[in-house]
Recover the amino acids of this structure.
C-alpha cells in the first residue's frame, strides 16, 4: 500500500512518529493509501527549517516572488487533469467540480502575481520641518495554514500563495483525509522555483495543530473547518500572541421572492445545494420562499429535479451531478440528520437514504434529500448538515424571511432571487452576513475581493485572499526620518507636534 510523506526543506520526508491515518477512495469504501501523522519533533523540524529559509526569501524582491507564482500558474494548468483525478479519487467529488476547486485556487495565485502593487507602502515628504514619513509592509516571518478536506486544492492555495508572495515561509497542515493534492501543489511550487524550506507540508492531526498553535516561531495561523474547531484554534492561537484568522460553519439561506423566475431559482438551488454532495461551506442549505404560493410552486418544480439527480463515482465524468460523501462517518452523520428531521416533524419530500449503486455498494453514497415545512427550532435547521440535504423554511413575508437569515448563529453566505431592485438593494444593505448574492446562488467573491463570513462563521478581523490576505501576512512599519541639516540644538521634553 502506498505510504505518503511530508515535504520539509524541499524534500520528501518519511514519517517517523509511527502513527498513520488511512486514506479511502470514498466511491468504493476501500483504503488506498496511508498518510503519516506528525509528532511534535517533526513539526519542530519543519518550523526550524522554515525559520532558517525565510529571511533570504523575505529579502527577495516582490517581482521575483511574483514570477514564481506566474510559473506556478503555468504548472497548474499543465497538470490540471492529473491534479483533478487525484483530488476526485480521495475526496469523491466529480472531475469537473475538482477542476473548479483547483481553478479557484489558481485564480488566487494569479492575483498574487501582482504582489509588487499590493505591497507598496505610503510616503509623505515634508511631514514636518525636514521630516519625511513613510510606511512599509514586511512579512510576519513564518505562517501556517490548517486546511479542510472539502477543498484540498483551493483553500491551501488561498493560504500559502499570498503568505509566500508576501515573503513569508509557510507550514501547511492539510486534511489527513485527502492530502495527496496539497503535496502535489508543494512539489509544483518547488518546480516553479520556490526555494527549499519556504513551503513545508506536514501531515497530522490535533497533535500537529497544537504544536502550530503553541510554537513561538509561528507568527500567524489561518484555519478553515467547523466552528467548534475554528473557535478553539482562534482562542489558543490568540492566547499565544499570534495573529489568527479562522473560518467555521455555515447555514446559507436563499430567500425566494414571489416575483423570482422559478426556473432560475430551481436551477440555482439544484447546483448550489447538491453540488459536491453538499460538502461546501457556501452550499445553500435553506430555501426560504416568501408566501404560500411561492413555496408551493418551488416544491412542485424542485421535487422532480431532486429525484432525477445523477449520483455516481467520479469516473462517470460529466454524467454525474455529485459523488459520494468523503467518509463512512460523514455518511452516517448525514443520514442521522435526515432521521432527526423526520422525527422532528419536517416533511421529507425526497428521501435519498436508501440510495445504492450497483458495483459500488460499499461506497459512501446517499441520494439527494429534500425537506419541506422546516422550522427554526429544528436541529436540521440549526445545524450544518454538510450533505446533499436541502431544507425549505416557509415564510409569510419579506421581513420574516430576512429575520430568519439574520437571527441564525452563522453568517457565511446568503442569497436572494428577485426581479425587484428596491427589495434586492434593501436586502444587501441590511443583511448581517459576510457574502451576499443577488440572483447568484453561491456568492464566492473573486480573488481580488476577500472571502469571509460574519457571526460564528468567522473569527478574526481579516478575511481570506484579496487585499486582506496581504494585510494579514504582513506587518506595517512606519518610519519617521529627519537628517541633521537644520536641526536646532537642545533637548525638547514635550511630545512632538507639527
Amino acid at each position: 500500500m502506498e505510504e505518503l510523506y511530508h515535504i520539509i526543506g524541499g524534500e520528501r520526508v518519511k514519517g517517523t512518529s509511527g502513527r498513520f491515518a488511512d486514506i479511502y477512495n470514498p466511491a468504493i469504501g476501500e483504503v488506498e493509501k496511508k498518510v503519516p501523522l506528525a509528532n511534535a519533533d517533526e513539526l519542530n523540524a519543519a518550523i526550524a527549517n522554515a525559520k532558517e529559509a525565510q529571511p533570504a526569501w523575505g529579502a527577495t524582491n516582490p517581482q521575483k516572488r511574483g514570477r514564481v507564482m506566474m510559473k506556478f500558474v503555468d504548472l497548474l494548468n499543465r497538470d490540471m487533469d492529473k491534479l483533478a483525478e487525484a483530488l476526485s479519487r480521495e475526496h469523491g467529488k466529480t472531475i469537473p467540480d475538482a477542476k473548479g476547486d483547483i481553478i479557484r485556487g489558481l485564480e488566487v495565485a494569479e492575483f498574487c502575481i501582482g504582489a509588487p502593487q499590493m505591497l507598496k507602502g505610503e510616503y509623505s515628504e515634508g511631514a514636518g520641518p525636514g521630516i519625511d514619513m513613510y510606511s512599509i509592509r514586511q512579512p510576519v516571518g513564518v505562517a501556517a495554514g490548517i486546511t479542510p478536506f472539502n477543498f484540498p486544492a483551493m483553500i491551501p492555495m488561498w493560504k500559502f500563495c499570498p503568505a509566500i508572495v508576501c515573503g513569508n515561509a509557510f507550514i501547511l497542515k492539510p486534511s489527513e483525509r485527502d492530502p495527496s493534492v496539497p503535496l502535489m501543489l508543494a512539489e509544483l511550487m518547488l518546480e516553479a522555483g520556490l526555494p527549499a524550506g519556504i513551503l513545508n507540508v506536514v501531515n497530522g492531526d490535533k497533535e500537529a495543530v497544537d504544536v502550530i498553535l503553541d510554537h513561538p516561531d509561528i507568527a500567524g495561523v489561518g484555519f478553515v473547518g467547523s466552528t467548534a474547531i475554528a473557535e478553539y484554534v482562534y482562542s489558543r492561537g490568540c492566547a499565544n500572541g499570534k495573529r489568527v484568522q479562522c473560518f467555521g460553519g455555515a447555514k446559507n439561506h436563499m430567500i425566494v421572492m414571489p416575483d423570482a423566475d422559478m426556473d432560475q431559482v430551481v436551477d440555482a438551488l439544484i447546483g448550489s445545494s447538491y453540488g459536491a454532495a453538499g460538502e461546501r461551506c457556501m452550499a445553500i442549505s435553506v430555501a426560504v420562499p416568501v408566501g404560500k404560493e411561492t413555496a408551493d410552486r418551488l416544491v412542485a418544480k424542485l421535487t422532480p429535479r431532486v429525484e432525477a439527480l445523477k449520483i455516481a463515482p467520479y469516473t462517470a465524468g460529466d454524467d454525474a451531478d455529485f459523488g459520494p460523501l468523503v467518509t463512512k462517518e460523514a455518511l452516517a452523520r448525514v443520514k442521522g440528520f435526515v432521521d432527526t428531521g423526520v422525527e422532528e416533524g419536517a416533511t421529507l419530500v425526497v428521501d435519498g437514504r436508501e440510495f445504492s449503486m450497483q458495483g459500488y455498494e460499499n461506497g459512501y453514497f446517499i441520494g439527494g434529500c429534500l425537506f419541506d415545512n422546516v422550522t427554526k427550532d429544528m436541529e436540521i435547521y440549526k445545524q450544518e448538515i454538510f450533505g446533499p440535504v436541502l431544507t425549505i423554511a416557509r415564510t409569510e413575508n419579506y421581513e420574516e424571511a430576512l429575520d430568519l437569515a439574520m437571527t441564525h448563529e452563522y453568517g457565511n453566505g446568503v442569497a436572494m432571487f428577485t426581479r425587484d431592485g428596491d427589495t434586492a438593494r434593501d436586502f444587501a444593505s441590511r443583511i448581517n452576513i459576510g457574502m451576499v448574492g443577488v440572483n447568484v446562488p453561491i456568492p464566492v467573491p473573486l480573488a481580488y475581493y476577500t472571502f469571509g463570513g460574519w457571526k460564528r462563521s468567522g473569527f478574526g478581523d481579516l478575511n481570506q485572499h484579496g487585499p486582506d490576505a496581504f494585510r494579514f501576512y504582513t506587518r506595517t512599519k512606519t518610519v519617521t526620518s529627519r537628517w541633521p541639516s537644520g536641526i536646532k540644538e537642545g533637548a525638547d521634553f514635550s511630545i512632538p507636534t507639527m
About this structure: The mean pLDDT is 96.
